[in-house]
Design goal:
Layout: H1 5-15, H2 25-45, H3 50-73, H4 75-85
């Protein structure tokens, strides 16, 4: 399921520095997390969808890389972000 414009704007407003801040690490991680949650729900209903499984693994890897970068550069922002998104680390 694709991200709606309203949902994307809501996430950008919550995690971004401004309304048009779609490039910051926090916003990118929040958008990826939303996509991962949607894809996980899809895969629970469609267990044999291998293409979506591959896409999910790519998204998880991308989010993991961004989180590792954020952890290296700004530890406080990293801890705040994973707490707000409910991620474990």
């Amino acid at each position: 399921m694709a991200l709606t414009k309203e949902r994307k704007a809501e996430l950008v407003k919550k995690f971004g520095k401004s309304e048009n801040d779609t490039g910051s690490i926090q916003v990118q991680v929040a958008l990826l997390t939303d996509q991962i949650v949607a894809l996980t729900a899809h895969l629970k209903a469609n267990k044999k969808d291998a293409a979506s499984q591959r896409g999910l693994m790519k998204l998880v890897g991308q989010r993991r890389s961004l989180l590792a970068y954020l952890q290296r550069t700004n530890r406080d922002a990293y801890l705040k972000l994973i707490a707000e998104l409910g991620l474990r680390k």
